[in-house]
Design brief:
240 residues; alpha+beta
C-alpha cells in the first residue's frame, strides 16, 4: 500500500510574520520592565480591593431603602462569620406576610478567600429540606452598563418554618450563585486591573405560609434582591 501523501506546509506570508513580530514586541514591552526590576507577575499575591467596607458588614446592617433593620448580629455558619440582619417595612408599611425578611451575608475577609461551600454550610446548619429550585435573573443599573445577576431560588423547610430563599455571590461587576462564575470574573480582574475581585455571599430568607408556593413571592424577592445588590454596589463593593 502506498503511503498517504502529506500536503507541503505553506510558508507564512509577510503579513503573518509581521503580526507575529508585533505580538512578540507587545509581550516584551509589558513583561520585560517587571522582569528587569525583579518584579515577576506571580512573585507576590495580588491584592484585593480595600475590604474595609466589606468587613464592616459584620458590624452593622446594610442600609436598604424602604426597609428598617430590626436586629443585627454576627453568627457562625460552618465556622465562618456571617452577618444576620432582620428587616421590616419602613414606617407606613403594613404588617403581614412579606413585611419582614432575613438577610444573611458572608463578606470576604482576605484576598486569598474564595467562594466555596457557603450554600452547603447554610443548608446543613439550618437542616433545610429544599425543593422547587429555580433560577432567577435580574440586573441593576451601574455606570457603564447594567450589572447582571443570576440567583438560585428555592423553598426551604426546617420542620417549623417555610422560607422562600434567594442566594448569590455578589461582586462589583456581576453576581451568580455558582462560585465558578466568580472565578472567571476574578481572572479578568487580575489581568486587567492587577487586583482580585471582592465578593459577598448573599442569602435572603422570606417567611411564607407553611409549605407555600414560592412562585407567588418571586416578584417581591427579586425586588428585595435588587435593592440588596444596589446597596452593596454603593457601599461595600466599590472598586476604583
Amino acid at each position: 500500500m502506498s503511503e498517504a501523501v502529506k500536503p507541503i506546509p505553506r510558508p507564512k506570508s509577510v503579513v503573518q510574520w509581521v503580526l507575529v513580530i508585533m505580538l512578540a514586541a507587545l509581550v516584551a514591552m509589558v513583561t520585560l520592565p517587571g522582569y528587569i526590576g525583579g518584579q515577576w507577575p506571580w512573585s507576590t499575591p495580588l491584592p484585593v480591593a480595600d475590604t474595609t467596607e466589606i468587613k464592616s458588614l459584620l458590624k452593622a446592617p446594610l442600609a436598604l431603602p424602604g426597609w428598617e433593620s430590626s436586629s443585627h448580629q454576627e453568627v457562625r455558619i460552618g465556622r465562618r462569620p456571617w452577618s444576620l440582619a432582620e428587616y421590616q417595612l419602613a414606617s407606613g408599611g403594613t404588617d403581614g406576610p412579606g413585611s419582614t425578611f432575613g438577610l444573611l451575608m458572608r463578606p470576604q475577609m482576605s484576598a486569598d478567600q474564595q467562594p466555596e461551600v457557603e450554600w452547603v454550610d447554610m443548608q446543613g446548619s439550618q437542616s433545610w429540606q429544599i425543593n422547587d429550585r429555580q433560577v432567577v435573573r435580574f440586573s441593576v443599573p451601574a455606570e457603564g452598563q447594567p450589572v447582571k445577576i443570576t440567583t438560585q431560588y428555592f423553598r426551604a423547610l426546617d420542620g417549623r418554618n417555610t422560607f422562600a430563599v434567594m442566594q448569590w455571590y455578589a461582586w462589583p461587576t456581576g453576581g451568580h450563585y455558582a462560585p465558578g462564575k466568580w472565578f472567571w470574573a476574578d481572572q479578568r480582574q487580575q489581568w486587567q486591573q492587577r487586583e482580585r475581585m471582592p465578593w459577598v455571599a448573599v442569602s435572603i430568607l422570606l417567611p411564607i405560609e407553611p409549605v407555600g408556593d414560592i412562585r407567588g413571592h418571586t416578584e417581591q424577592m427579586t425586588a428585595i434582591a435588587e435593592t440588596v445588590q444596589q446597596s452593596l454596589l454603593e457601599s461595600a463593593l466599590i472598586i476604583e
